[in-house]
């Protein structure tokens, strides 16, 4: 823990009772490397973190999750960090690296290159991925990876860490000499054994080559004198091999030294991304949600936001909004139990199959092979999924008082919220629904449990007092305070008075941003009706089955169920009557207040339900109106389309007729007398085709040969978006037309219409 934090012991104690250390271990277990695990734990335990730091951590986690969704993230267990670290230390000292260390370094560089190529491929496919992968894409794309070094390592060292023969000519020659001398020595020994030659011998020690080569595993071996010179030459050849290998490895060290800064940078970034990936994999594995983490500020007693990860805080209704929030450790324990039960079932099935194949006829029933029982256990576990909490705290609330029976889930609810606040602050997704919203707390302070401070000879109550006193002095307007069983451990009357006074102190505007307390004292339930900064909640209890449901009900104080439970359990009636008399009017008043609160909540729920249905009716009406409008628009478009098609067909037919007509006129004009020069072309055509020279003309032709006749639909030049007009009259001599558009008639020159 950073030494700069004041009262560090109280912060550590708070996280200990929340079991933050266990959650950190679970998250770190998703790292692929040992250094990644260590880095993940250190990062999660770094409490000296600003709001901007928390936002950055969440962005990193979200980027890693997006990379998983695309398929760009890799498994970091492929990196052997111990070998890479040892390799870099050798390079710093200038000593030869080992072959395995060189292979480890090559593996890391290849891994980093693959990660870089994955990101580049995603960005080429869609440039939006670059923004989704930020800030990891920036880290990965800026990695400097030496391709010449990678190529050299591949050329010099084999996958098993041995130096390749091709690494140097000296090494190749030395290894050939070793093979030659080993072959000769083997042939010599075979010849001595085969010919049963009697000759002088010497006893070799433990480290001689013959023992290792020919009689492996013996403590001492006997060497023929004739083999001594050959064996000496073999040892010299092997020494030459070792020297040549060292020269190659030293050359690798020098190559690494040239790129050492870049290598160290790649190594550090791989560890950092492994740490980030652990947070992402945990969040994905448990179905977490990206939280709306906002920086709170107090305005007139209500919590608002200075900044937010989702920029949705302007219309914020809640200080805390955690629908369906799970306790992460309970969920982890549940998954482990289910996984173990499924493994037991799988092992049992495998064992039964093995025995059948082996012909075993043992009919003795063994519990670990009872398949129906094991399947029933799995079925029970699947039905016993931990119950999520809906933690919903309005903006105006500073203190929440939670009541309910023992083992009803009050303490688990406190821990769930405390862990959720720490998870969001530390860059983890919250195990809740997608719309989760939580403020950034500078300190999460918790007093949970009834452990006595034996080292200071303090009783339970005294220990709580000391703890709470330190929490009160440390808390700020951005702190979260969690108090379990406030006022417990002493005389009930005094405990209730102390609890009321303490919670009122925490409700002050200059105290903690939010305080959540559990209690059994009925008097604390009434604080809501005296101070608007208070809110009640209770853990639901199934009175019919006499067991808690572990669901939290907001706005309603918990009702005392002890006497009712005693009655259902068969306690004598006279005892119950006397208990109710002693409980008296005070208890009745509390119960009456509870009934009124339940009625009020029921009324609000009915109003909200009615408003919801009213909204649905409105939406349906708007949908129907929109559909009718779309249908009308579609019908109009269809009519227009059909009209256009008919017009095009008519225009095409008219064009054919006009061409044929002009051809007839031209042919008849050749055989007719030439018209007087004073007559126009239209008059000439009309005279040639009309039986009555005084009849009104029915068509005109313009300068481009286009034909306009009575009944044609035309448009007027220069009029934008104008309707089509109908030709009703022609004036051949003036080259004019009379058109009609609705109730309007106008005379236009032939060139003004189309």
UniProtKB/TrEMBL annotation:
InterPro entries: DNA_mismatch_repair_MutS_C, DNA_mismatch_repair_MutS_sf, MutS, MutS2, P-loop_NTPase. Residues 164-191 form a coiled coil. Signal peptide: none annotated. Residues 479-495 form the DNA mismatch repair proteins mutS family domain. Gene3D superfamilies: P-loop containing nucleotide triphosphate hydrolases (3.40.50.300). One of its GO terms (molecular function) is ATP binding. One of its GO terms (biological process) is negative regulation of DNA recombination. It comes from the Eukaryota. It holds the Pfam family MutS_V. The keyword DNA-binding applies. Keywords: ATP-binding, Coiled coil, DNA-binding, Hydrolase, Nucleotide-binding, RNA-binding, rRNA-binding. This is DNA mismatch repair proteins mutS family domain-containing protein. It comes from Genlisea aurea.
């Amino acid at each position: 823990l950073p030494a700069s934090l004041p009262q560090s012991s109280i912060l550590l104690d708070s996280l200990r009772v929340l079991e933050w250390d266990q959650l950190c271990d679970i998250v770190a277990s998703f790292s692929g490397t040992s250094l990644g695990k260590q880095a993940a734990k250190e990062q999660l335990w770094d409490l000296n973190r600003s709001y901007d730091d928390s936002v950055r951590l969440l962005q990193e986690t979200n980027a890693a999750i997006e990379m998983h969704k695309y398929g760009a993230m890799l498994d970091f267990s492929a990196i052997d960090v111990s070998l890479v670290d040892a390799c870099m230390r050798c390079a710093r000292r200038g000593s030869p690296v080992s072959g395995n260390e060189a292979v480890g370094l090559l593996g890391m560089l290849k891994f980093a290159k693959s990660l870089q190529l994955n990101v580049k491929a995603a960005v080429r496919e869609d440039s939006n991925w670059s923004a989704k992968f930020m800030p990891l894409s920036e880290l990965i794309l800026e990695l400097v990876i030496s391709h010449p070094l990678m190529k050299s390592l591949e050329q010099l060292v084999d996958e098993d860490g041995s130096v390749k023969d091709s690494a140097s000519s000296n090494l190749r020659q030395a290894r050939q000499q070793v093979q030659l001398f080993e072959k000769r020595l083997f042939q010599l020994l075979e010849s001595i054994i085969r010919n049963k030659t009697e000759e002088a011998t010497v006893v070799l020690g433990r480290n001689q080559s013959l023992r290792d080569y020919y009689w492996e595993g013996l403590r001492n071996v006997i060497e023929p004198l004739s083999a001594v010179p050959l064996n000496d030459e073999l040892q010299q050849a092997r020494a030459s091999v070792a020297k040549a290998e060292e020269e190659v490895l030293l050359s690798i060290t020098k190559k690494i030294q040239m790129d050492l800064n870049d290598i160290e940078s790649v190594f550090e970034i791989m560890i950092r991304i492994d740490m980030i990936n652990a947070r992402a994999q945990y969040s994905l594995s448990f179905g977490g949600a990206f939280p709306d983490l906002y920086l709170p500020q107090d305005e007139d007693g209500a919590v608002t936001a200075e900044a937010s990860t989702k920029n949705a805080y302007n219309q914020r209704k809640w200080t805390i909004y955690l629908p369906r929030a799970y306790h992460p450790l309970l969920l982890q324990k549940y998954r482990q139990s289910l996984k173990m039960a499924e493994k037991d079932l799988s092992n049992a099935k495998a064992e039964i199959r093995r025995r059948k194949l082996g012909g075993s006829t043992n009919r003795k029933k063994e519990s670990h092979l009872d398949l129906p029982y094991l399947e029933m256990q799995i079925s029970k576990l699947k039905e016993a999924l931990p119950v999520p909490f809906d933690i919903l705290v309005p903006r105006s609330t500073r203190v929440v008082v939670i009541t309910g029976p023992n083992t009803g889930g009050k303490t688990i609810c406190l821990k769930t919220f405390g862990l959720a606040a720490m998870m969001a602050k530390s860059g983890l997704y919250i195990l809740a629904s997608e719309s989760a919203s939580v403020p950034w707390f500078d300190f999460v302070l918790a007093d949970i449990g009834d452990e006595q401070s034996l080292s200071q000879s303090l009783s339970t109550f005294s220990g709580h007092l000391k703890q709470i006193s330190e929490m009160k002095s440390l808390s700020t307007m951005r702190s979260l305070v969690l108090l379990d069983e406030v006022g417990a451990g002493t005389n009930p009357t005094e405990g209730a008075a102390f609890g009321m006074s303490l919670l009122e102190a925490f409700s002050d505007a200059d105290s903690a941003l939010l305080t959540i307390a559990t209690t059994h004292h009925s008097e604390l339930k009434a604080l809501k009706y005296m101070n608007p900064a208070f809110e009640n909640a209770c853990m639901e209890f199934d009175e019919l089955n006499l067991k808690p449901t572990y669901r939290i009900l907001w706005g309603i104080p918990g009702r005392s169920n002890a006497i009712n439970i005693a009655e259902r359990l068969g306690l004598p009636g006279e005892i119950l009557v006397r208990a109710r008399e002693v409980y008296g009017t005070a208890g009745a008043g509390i119960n009456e207040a509870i009934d009124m609160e339940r009625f009020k909540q029921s009324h609000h729920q009915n109003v909200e339900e009615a408003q919801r249905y009213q909204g649905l009716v409105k939406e349906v009406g708007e949908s129907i109106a929109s559909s009718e409008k779309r249908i009308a628009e579609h019908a109009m478009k269809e009519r227009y389309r059909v009209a256009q098609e008919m017009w095009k067909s008519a225009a095409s037919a008219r064009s054919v007729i006009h061409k044929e007509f002009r051809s007839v006129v031209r042919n008849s004009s050749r055989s007719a007398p030439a018209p007087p020069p004073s007559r126009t072309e239209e008059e000439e055509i009309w005279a040639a085709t009309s039986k009555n020279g005084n009849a009104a003309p029915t068509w005109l032709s313009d300068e481009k040969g286009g034909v306009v006749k009575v009944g044609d639909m035309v448009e007027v030049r220069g009029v934008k978006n104008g309707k089509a007009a109908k030709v009703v009259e022609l004036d051949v001599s003036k080259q004019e037309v009379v058109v009609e558009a609705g109730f309007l008639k106008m005379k236009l020159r032939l060139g003004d219409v189309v």
